Amino acid sequence: MGSIIVITNEKGGVGKTTTAGNLAAAYATMGMRVLAVDMDPQRNLTDLMGISQDTARTHSIADAILEKKGIESFTVQTRTEGIDLIPATPKLREVDRQYGASFEQDKLLNVPFDSPKLDEYDIVIIDTHGSQNCLLTSSLAVAHYYLIPLFPEPDAARGVFDVIEYAERVRNATNRTLTLLGLMVTGFDRRVSVHPRVLQSLRDYGQKWNIRVFNSIIPFSSRVKTAAEQQLLLAGLREDAPVTMAYQSLAGEILPMLKGKRVGRVSQPKLAEIQSSIETFEAMDEVIG
Ligand SMILES: Nc1ncnc2c1ncn2[C@@H]1O[C@H](COP(=O)(O)OP(=O)(O)O)[C@@H](O)[C@H]1O
Ligand SMILES: [Mg+2]
Question: For 137-146, what is each residue's pLDDT tens digit?
């Protein structure tokens, strides 16, 4: 089985879906077989991959969960060679309502992912909404890794602690292999004076917390919106654009971590220590800001 990576951050609009789609594309370009799974009822990844709601209605992760079936009946080929998708529909909200308080709430993907079809993929990327609900818990419960994208805004670190704490709870309860890949900065614009400063602070604190902040920084680019409006991944607009290349670089930076020993667990500097660091970080932002 390939590596399963959940893209998560409690905050909305921080580039989770853009990262899920374009990281998938970067790995597909390297010749890997990629499965993308849209676990967000808002179904932005499904749109980005150009899959219609008609197709999604008969192939959705919500149906796999509700019918308790393996993923093999629910994957669709996208127009990007090498990427299959299990689309989302608003039915995922029904799943959340139905299972949110049940004892199965962290096991929703166990049956769908117990499928020989999964062995066909080198990498599985799950996009999430970010809310702390059974959809996120179940995604983290079947994953090997999670990745946290963020925009370099002064409040960037806020929320990250909650995500890590939440993932640690899932790790302790059900999934001892779950590992934080790291924080990745996106929407970076060096002309915005606060961005380089926030990036530096994130790096300093990453070092202190023993949390990786990826060297590959995804620049702010109007192409991201243009591509999304056309339901295209970035490479579909221009392969050599800096933002496309930045995602390739990030994919390359992550790859050795997937092959090697799982490192980067957050237990060492204790969570409480991390939290107090975040408070310092925020206090410093007030000075910067
Ligand atoms: N690198 C980037 N440059 C410019 N805009 C971006 C970038 N990444 C994401 N965006 C835009 O920011 C918004 C939120 O991105 P999205 O990936 O949908 O975030 P999330 O899934 O976390 O809600 C979208 O309008 C998207 O087009
Ligand atoms: Mg999204």
Answer: 999 999 999 9
What the chain holds in terms of domains, given with CATH numbers, is 3-288 (3.40.50.300)
Kindly report, residue by residue over 113-138, the tens digit of the pLDDT: 999 999 999 999 999 998 999 999 99
- Token code pair at residue 289: 């800001």
Give the integer Cα–Cα distance in Å for 76 and 67: 18
Give the residue, out of 16, 18, 135, 191, with the most ligand 1 atoms within 8 A of its beta carbon, to mutate for a pocket test: 18
In this structure, what token pair is assigned to residue 52?
């219609």
Task: Name the band, by pLDDT with cuts 50, 70 and 90, for residue 272.
Answer: low
Ligand at shortest distance from the CA of 39: 2
Residues 35-86: pLDDT tens digits?
A: 999 999 999 999 999 999 999 999 999 999 999 999 999 999 999 999 999 9
- 148, with CB counted inside 10 A (0-12, 13-18, 19+), is buried
134-142 vs 91-99: helix axis angle to the nearest 10? 90
Write the burial class of residue 107 (CB in 10 Å: 0-12 exposed, 13-18 middle, 19+ buried): middle
The model carries a pTM of 0.92
* Contact criterion met (CB below 8 Å) for 86 and 59: yes
Ligand nearest to the backbone CA of 151: 1
List strand residue ranges (DSSP E) for 132-209, in order: 145-150, 179-185
